[in-house]
Amino acid sequence: MKCIFKIFIFLSIIKGYGQESEKFVSDLMSKMTLEEKVGQLNQYSGEWAHTGPVTKDGDKQTQIKKGLVGSMLNVTTVKHTTELQKMAMQSRLKIPLLFGQDVIHGFRINYPIPLAEVASWDIPLIEKSARFAAVEASAYGVHWTFAPMVDISRDPRWGRVMEGAGEDTFLGVQVAKGRVKGFQGNGIGNTDAVMACAKHFAAYGAAVGGRDYNSVDMSLRQLYETYLPPFKAAVDAGVGTLMNSFNDLNGVPATGNKFLQREILKKQWNFKGFVVSDWGSIGEMIQHGFVKNNYEAAKVAIEAGSDMDMESRSYKNHLAQLVNEGKVDIKLVDDAVRRILIKKYELGLFADPFKFSNQKREDAQSNNPEHRKHARDIGARSIVLLKNEKQLLPLSKKTKNIALIGPFGKVVGENLGFWATTWPDDNSTIVSQFAGIKAQMDANSNLIYAKGCNVNDQDRSQFNEAIEAAKKADVVIMTMGEAHDMSGEAKSRSSLQFPGVQEELLKEIQKTGKPIVLLINAGRPLIFNWAADNIEAIAYTWWLGSEAGNAIADVVFGNYNPAGKLPMSFPRSEGQIPIYYNYYNTGRPAADENETSYVSAYNDLKNSPKYFFGYGLSYTKFDISNLKLSNSKLKTENDVLKISVTVENKGNFDGEEVVQLYIRDLVGSVVRPVRELKGFQKIFLKKGEKREVQFEITPENLKFYNDNLEYIFEEGDFEVFVGNSSNADLKASFELVK
Ligand code: NOJ
């Protein structure tokens, strides 16, 4: 009874708060001119940084003072945000500016890139990165982050896979929830939280050919089942905003897409926040061939539910005219303005426009040691051990001579990844791989360094020096991969091999006969068959952020036993892309990897990836056995099936393992994937320790979209697979019955 009373009070407060903000905003809007209303829908980039094509606009400051700008992006620090907010306070109604920023993998302290973090399969830690990034960013005057990016993608040619959660929807949903919670903390309005923005709505990750900004053509069933759930999860987690996407979806640009924004998002999902366009995407509907000019673009976008115009100026230049001419209903403008003002209210900006611009807080967050510690922890946990022949890793700290060779050895900025736009220029607080490794070696051991080559050119002049360095060493650590700006926005690539002469260098070093540990730095799955087949130990280190060097050293020397698992399938060849584990069986599946005659297979390549989704090794050995189901039947009415396995640490190291549960629905009214991830648990076992791990499945977990887009389950037979990758072979079955 007491509890019900508390809930009642809580709901009344929330309701009261909602009424208060509604009333405040209605009063304010009654005083606003049409131009001022349109101003709230207008967002510009500051001049300190640009994250899109620059549009020269000489009089932004005057416009702010006139109340014709609602939001700015790329304006950070107490100094700059105060400067601009003061200008907004000179406007007639003193409506505060909203400062948005791409806080994608940390702010000043950088965490592993989002895809790398997902390899940890550790949702609480992923949430913590977002939390700490929010604490920092909000202390630097930022109100709103353009994150999380929740686009599912099955195409590593697309450079933006580095920003997302990979190829799987189930995993993507958990990550989306965690990141939204992390950014928004105890709620927007707290000075240690930023408003989140789930992007890019929708299906941006399915660009044809993996070419950024390209078209997307997909069935609605695929859209609902694979691409929308992380957005829905973000909305359910209370995300304040969404950003729409550059692509057209089935011929209609997302920015002008009524079905996506009005029907699905605002009607079916009852989303109360606002939608910001992507950079210039309202105006880009002209190039799409969807509208004739910015005047039409403004009309189409506002009707479709795009509330704020990032950088295209279509609203600013045409919306008032469209309303005055009776071509756009003022109600649409009012709805967009209201949504934005409510968020400003919830952020507390009307009460104090300078609430987030506090020098003391900014100073206190400079290089926060707790955040650095977290960057190191999650850095190590993001590393995926792909190969470890003869247990070459971990190395002994007493190894007399280690050679560190490769273009990533001593550089620092390369460790950060694409969206590190806010770091001070000198990069002085980023730990290089050389520094991290050296710091952990015994005083009497030597770390020899040779760069060997650049990341992406044909210069072989440093090969000899590298070969000599290798000859002096007991073991070589090669550090190779992509430069920080080779994956990211507009960074699609048709070749995913090591760029430049890096692989050639690796082959030369291998000829010395020295044991090699290969570290691969990248923002996407690369293709490295020769290395995979010929190098003893390989760790995928992605781009790990400010503490990269220490995190890598922790894994190399075994302070941390790696447990990362791949969040995307790693192809053998670009020709296999798109590649993903949850494909359909087809009518002519190949019986094995060698069968090619009249089956769905490549004649010159296996179907399987080089490394499976969910795969990753440990220094210890985990045995997963004894798969048991609580029943062979699951009833459609409120029943629960318990699935258990025994996990035993049979190796010589304590360690973590990600136990994964996959399901196959054998026969459906629409065909179902050969496997679907339905659960995972990350557990820690001391060496020799054994534990039962339990999962639960309910009929709800077996639902899918049928041909009429109804979300249903169907009775019938299911298979269950449990193991430590999507290739797990431990199998059982059950039947879903009435
Ligand atoms: C374009 C990108 O697609 C988007 O993700 C980003 O938030 C904006 N630019 C602003 O930088």
Small molecules held by this entry? 1-deoxynojirimycin
What is the averaged pLDDT score?
A: 96
Which sheet architecture does the biggest sheet show? Answer: 6 strands, mixed
Question: What does the radius of gyration come to?
Answer: 27 Å
Proportion of strand residues: 15-25%
Seen as an oligomer or otherwise, the chain set is single chain
| Tertiary shape | globular
Number of helices: 21
Question: Portion of residues in helices?
Answer: 25-40%
Strand order of the largest sheet: 11-16-15-14-12-13
The structure class reads alpha/beta
Number of β-strand runs: 26
Low-confidence stretches: 1-5, 8-14
Terminal residue distance: 36 Å
Short structural description:
The chain has 738 residues and is an alpha/beta fold.
Question: What's the helix and strand layout?
Answer:
Layout: H1 2-31, H2 34-40, E1 42-45, H3 60-65, E2 71-73, H4 78-88, E3 98-101, H5 114-118, H6 123-139, E4 144-145, H7 169-184, E5 197-201, H8 220-227, H9 229-236, E6 241-244, E7 248-249, E8 252-253, H10 258-268, E9 274-276, H11 285-288, H12 294-304, E10 309-310, H13 314-324, H14 330-346, H15 359-364, H16 369-382, E11 384-388, E12 401-405, H17 433-440, E13 446-450, H18 463-471, E14 475-481, H19 502-510, E15 516-521, H20 529-534, E16 537-540, H21 548-556, E17 622-629, E18 633-635, E19 641-649, E20 655-665, E21 676-685, E22 690-697, E23 704-705, E24 711-712, E25 716-723, E26 730-737
Parallel strand pairs: 1-2, 1-10, 2-3, 3-4, 5-6, 6-9, 12-13, 12-14, 14-15, 15-16, 18-26
Antiparallel strand pairs: 7-8, 11-16, 17-19, 19-22, 20-21, 20-25, 23-24, 25-26
Helix pairs in contact: 1-14, 2-13, 6-7, 6-16, 7-9, 12-13, 16-21, 17-21
This protein binds 1-deoxynojirimycin.
